[in-house]
Every structure is written in C-alpha cells, then in structure tokens.
Amino acid sequence: MKVKKFLGQHFLFDPSILKKIIETANLDKEDTVVEIGAGHGNLTTLLAEVSKRVIAIEFDKKLYDILLEKSSTYGNIEPVHCDAMKFPYESIGIFKVVANIPYYITTPLLFRLLKARKKIKTITLTLQKEVAERLVAHPGIKDYGLLSITAQYYSQPQIRFIIPAGAFRPIPRVDSAVVHITILEEPRINVSDEKLFFRIIKTCFSQRRKTILNNLRNLDSDMKGILLRLGIQPNVRAETLSIEDFGKICDALIQKKKGVL
C-alpha cells in the first residue's frame, strides 16, 4: 500500500515494541481506549485484548477499510473514519488515549487532548523525540516553552522509552519516543485567571530573545516594579522562569487591577 507522506504516515510493525507500548499504557479490562492513527490495526487488536472498548480513529480511507476488516472478529473495536482533531472526545465518557501521532499534527493534537482532559485518565503517545523532549523540559533548557508549560500545568508527562527511526516503515528522519502523560486532578498551580496566565506565557515565548520586561511591558505601566517585587529580574528571558513564576506574575497583575498591589 502506498504511503501518503502528507499525512505523516510512519507505521510500527514490531510486536515487541507494540507490546511495550501496551505495557506503558497500563490498561485493564474496564478501560475505554481511544487510539488515534490506528493505521493497519496492529496495535488496535492488541489494545482490544486488554481493554473493554477500543475506539480506533483513522483518517485515511484505505487504511480505515483495512482496519474494518482486521477488527471484524473483535466485538470491542469501534473503527471511526474521521479527522482526530474533529473527534468529539468529550462525548464518550472517561477514557485513556494510546496513539502513534502523525508528525504533522503532533502539537495541535496534544493541545486538543489537553482541552478534553476532564474525560481523560492517561495519554500514551508515540511521537517525535524532539517533541517529547519539549513536553518534559524544565526552565533553563532550550526545549522549554509553551508546550512544556501547558502540558506540565495540566499533567505529568514522562518519557518512557525511545524508538529508533529504523523501527518504522517508511523510515522517518528522526527517532521517536513513547511518552506517558498522567492527567492531574487539579492544575499544578492555582492561578486567578487561566486566560491571562496563558496569554502571558504565549506573549513571552512568541519572542523568546526578548526580556520578560520587553515582552510584558504593555500589560501594565509598572511592569518593571511588579517583577522586582516578585523577585524576578526584568532582564531575564522567558525560558528561565518556572510555571510558578508565571503564576505569580498573573496573580500580581490581577491584584494590581483590583487595587490590592
């Protein structure tokens, strides 16, 4: 079957790696699993053997037809032909995600899943190693940014193991990593205004080479004073600040607006 490169298709066939992904997902017979990018169904059938229900999403119509045939003998596999970005995750109850995410939608799909986080227990993803490193990055590391903070604000991401490029067909240009993400019951920190919190972060990382003060000075006429009172040097860059630091900036701006600060 001809691979559609524009869909970022890279397939895993090695049974030992597929089983390792299953083990990482930590599934049981009561779990509903959403598999994104089911492909030929090699992982799908393994998921069906260890869980209660598998919703297997596949966008490619030819692969979907293969998936239909392969899953026909399983009573708990529900093949779905649709765009994973448009799937109504919020409508299917509590579930776990297992996915080999197409490279070209990795980041937007991660944000989409985090938006549906109240319905999700865990997310086990096979994705580009560089994206995995961004997910778990901490302040002071070049990979640290908006994706790192968003993921770590709502969840606990961990890189479990690396899959070399040669394990896929066709072979991609980069290695991949399997990441296990546990959704937190509550966000990692409490902030007064999540919308403002993420606006601050997006503003700071949209121009990474600028200092915090230069990025945020339009939010308040006394931005320098606010930062200094928080113990944050105005001339540092966004990548040096922790989630807690961004939370403090957000709350300080809220307090200033209310006349408390």
Q: Any overview of this molecule?
A:
Residues 1-8 have low confidence and may be disordered. The chain has helices at 15-25, 42-50, 61-71, 106-115, 129-136, 146-154, 194-206, 212-216, 223-229, 243-258, and strands at residues 11-12, 32-36, 53-58, 77-81, 95-100, 120-128, 155-163, 168-169, 176-183. The protein has two domains: 5-183, Vaccinia Virus protein VP39 (Rossmann fold, 3-Layer(aba) Sandwich); 194-258, rRNA adenine dimethylase, C-terminal domain (Helicase, Ruva Protein, domain 3), CATH 1.10.8.100. Helix content is 38%, strand content 20%. It has a seven-stranded mixed beta sheet with strand order 4-3-2-5-6-9-7, sandwiched between helices. A two-stranded antiparallel ribbon has the order 1-8. It is α/β, with parallel strands linked by helices and 261 residues long.
Spatial gap, N to C terminus: 64 Å
CATH class of the largest domain: Alpha Beta
- CA gyration radius, whole angstroms: 21 Å
**Which geometry do the CA atoms define?**
elongated
CATH superfamily of the largest domain: Vaccinia Virus protein VP39
In spatial order, strands of the major sheet run: 4-3-2-5-6-9-7
Tell me the major beta sheet: 7 strands, mixed
Number of spatially distinct domains: 2
Helix content: 25-40%
Task: Please identify, by name, the CATH architecture of the largest domain.
Answer: 3-Layer(aba) Sandwich
Whole-number mean pLDDT: 93
* Total number of beta strands: 9
